[in-house]
Write a structure and sequence with these properties.
Distance between the termini: 59 Å
Helix content: over 70%
Order of helices and strands: HHHHHHHHHH
Number of helices: 10
Number of strands: 0
Structural class: mainly alpha
Largest sheet: none
Amino acid sequence: MSLVLFSKVIVTVGMVLALSAIAERVSPRVAGLLSGYPMGAAIALFFMGLEISPDFAAQSAVYTLVGLVASQVFVYGYYRASAALHRQVIPAATLTALGGYFAMAWLLHFIPFSPTAAVLVPVASILIFTRLFRKVPNVAITRSVRFTFVVLLLRAGLAALIILAVTGAARAVGPAWAGLFAAFPTALFPLILIVHITYDKAHVHTIIKNFPLGLGALIAYALAVSLLYPPLGIYGGTLAALAVATLYLLAYGAVVGRLRRARTDRG
């Protein structure tokens, strides 16, 4: 295994295991928010820049932005199917989610997006999907279980395979499709499956409800990559983009905390 390939696997595995631990030990709500942090997309765009060129990754990042619409269609499809079904829920919800994602990605790849439009489209979609999920309750995990080696392998292996597929196909499919594929919820998908298998669909719905709210960080990251990779290169551009995304999450957390304190004071 080459060093680059090994690095992709190790980074992705660590990312998924960390998110799964947060879902158990903190809450599915926090895990849903952090699933919007640019982890899978950051890995994919970084290795596109490393293996192809910073300009290619920058062009792909524009379509990663609009690909977030497809990611939200993915989670909405999983939510609707899992809420409606009682038998074979996980296979049916997975197929519905994947079908929705690829259908939306196929439609989006025909449209030439400017960086400005590429930001406005996912922002609008976040407002729409946040409203669609507004009545979903936040349910905490109260019963922790011990995960087997097979479960841990499924978590990490699925995410690593997605990253390897996206970065491996990037050169062949071009920056538009590569960017759309980079927006696939790499960390979220295996997390949803494991939480659904281990706990209950109500916990999955909590993760899904909070996923759009965390996507602002990914929007900030992808926009920064599209603007900063050409002048700063992949290393400087990645560090700067991560700083921008982190500042967004910190600002978001501060605003939410202030709003909650205000509600408490009024109550």
